[in-house]
């Protein structure tokens, strides 16, 4: 996957911004970054779009800036000159796609029908925007289209909110979701940056879905592992399950038959997407032991340990 698309996928949510005053672009970008969403599709629906992109690119370098509602070659040229790293349009115009590709631009044209998607694929695209998503059948339509278009990925935009976000992102062929709910015009116009940050944090929290899955206890030998597991089973009325390397009390306590990672054991944290969890936790300074990573048949990380320990426990993030 293209590196920019990989970053978009890891971020998971692309705020779609219509900004009327370019002087507010930098504080808006900083609010988005603080909320865990260091990207934005700045739309050409306003005259301030180009200046806003220039300001963000210059002053918030960690921000991945894209241009939206790009309808003409002239707008595309201005967007690229202003620092845009990806180009988004509401509909599919094959001539615009060809022009953007000739400029080396990452093109994400809007599509709503199989015919438009096939034309996009014929031009070499493997990711397209699905717009307006909810009005065009939402995730149900995308899943229906995914049958014949198994290699195509979508970025749904239009009607996506925190409430239905995971309906989309839980499907593997969704690269990310675009949305305006965290950057509504009144929030920007009234400079409610803290509120924008809070909405972004809530969206990221929903997207990651981090939760405690199990605690692993290091035991000296198989006999101790069985004894400890059965103690937990008796105490909390949990089913006992014996395994090759560990015994389980339900799904919440794993008793290792010999000491494993961590002084005392390990803690498993579940995530909706381990790749996205790695990206967002890394932005907070968390370090991962890449040598511990395991992958599924699609190349996605399904389990990885953090470096070091917390309270004598190794910590690993696992796919729910």
Describe the structure.
By secondary structure, this protein is an alpha/beta fold. It folds into 2 domains: 3-207, Aldolase class I (TIM Barrel, Alpha-Beta Barrel), CATH 3.20.20.70; 211-319, 2,3-Dihydroxybiphenyl 1,2-Dioxygenase, domain 1, CATH 3.10.180. It is 37% helix and 25% strand. The protein is built from 12 helices and 17 strands. The protein has an 8-stranded mixed beta sheet with strand order 11-12-13-10-14-17-16-15. Strands 5-4-3-2-1-9 form a 6-stranded parallel beta sheet. Strands 6-7-8 form a 3-stranded parallel beta sheet, with helices on one face. The longest helix is centred in the middle third of the chain and has 16 residues, at 193-208.
Low-confidence spans: pLDDT under 50, at least 5 residues? none
* CATH superfamily grouping of the largest domain: Aldolase class I
Name of the CATH first level of the largest domain: Alpha Beta
Query: What is the number of helical segments per DSSP (H or I, 4+ residues)?
Result: 12
The tally of strands reads 17
What is the correct CATH architecture of the largest domain?
A: Alpha-Beta Barrel
Q: Might you state the CATH topology name of the largest domain?
A: TIM Barrel
Annotate the secondary structure layout.
Elements: H1 3-11, E1 13-17, H2 25-34, E2 39-43, H3 49-59, E3 64-68, H4 73-81, E4 86-88, H5 94-102, E5 107-108, E6 110-111, H6 114-122, E7 127-130, H7 138-146, E8 153-156, H8 165-169, E9 177-179, H9 185-189, H10 193-208, E10 211-218, H11 222-236, E11 240-242, E12 246-249, E13 253-256, E14 265-271, H12 274-283, E15 288-295, E16 301-306, E17 313-319
Parallel strand pairs: 1-2, 1-9, 2-3, 3-4, 4-5, 6-7, 7-8, 10-13, 14-17
Antiparallel strand pairs: 10-14, 11-12, 12-13, 15-16, 16-17
Helix pairs in contact: 2-10
């Amino acid at each position: 996957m293209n590196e920019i698309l990989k970053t978009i996928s890891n971020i998971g949510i692309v705020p779609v911004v219509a900004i009327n005053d370019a002087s507010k672009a930098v504080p808006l970008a900083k609010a988005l970054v603080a909320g865990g969403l260091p990207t934005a599709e700045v739309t050409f629906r306003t005259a301030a779009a180009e200046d806003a992109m220039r300001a963000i690119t210059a002053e918030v370098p960690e921000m991945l800036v894209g241009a939206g509602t790009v309808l003409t070659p002239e707008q595309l040229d201005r967007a690229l000159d202003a620092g845009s790293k990806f180009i988004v349009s509401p509909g599919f115009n094959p001539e615009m796609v060809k022009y953007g590709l000739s400029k080396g631009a990452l093109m994400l044209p809007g599509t709503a029908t199989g015919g438009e998607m096939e034309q996009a694929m014929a031009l070499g695209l493997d990711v397209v925007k699905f717009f307006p998503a909810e009005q065009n059948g939402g995730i149900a339509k995308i899943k229906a289209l995914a049958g014949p278009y198994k290699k195509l990925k979508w970025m749904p935009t239009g009607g996506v909110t925190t409430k239905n976000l995971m309906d989309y992102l839980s499907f593997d062929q969704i690269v990310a979701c675009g949305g305006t709910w965290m950057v509504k015009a009144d929030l920007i116009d009234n400079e409610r940056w803290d509120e924008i940050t809070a909405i972004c944090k809530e969206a990221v929290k929903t997207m990651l879905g981090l939760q405690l899955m199990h605690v692993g206890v290091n035991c000296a030998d198989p006999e101790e592992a069985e004894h400890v597991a059965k103690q937990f089973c008796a105490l909390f009325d949990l089913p006992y399950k014996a395994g090759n390397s560990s015994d389980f009390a339900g799904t919440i306590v794993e008793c290792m038959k010999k000491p494993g990672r961590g002084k005392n054991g390990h803690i498993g944290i579940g995530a909706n997407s381990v790749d996205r969890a790695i990206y967002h936790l890394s932005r907070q300074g968390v370090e991962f032991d890449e040598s511990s990573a395991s992958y599924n048949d699609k190349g996605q990380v399904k389990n990885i340990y953090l470096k070091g320990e917390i309270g004598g426990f190794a910590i690993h993030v696992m796919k729910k």
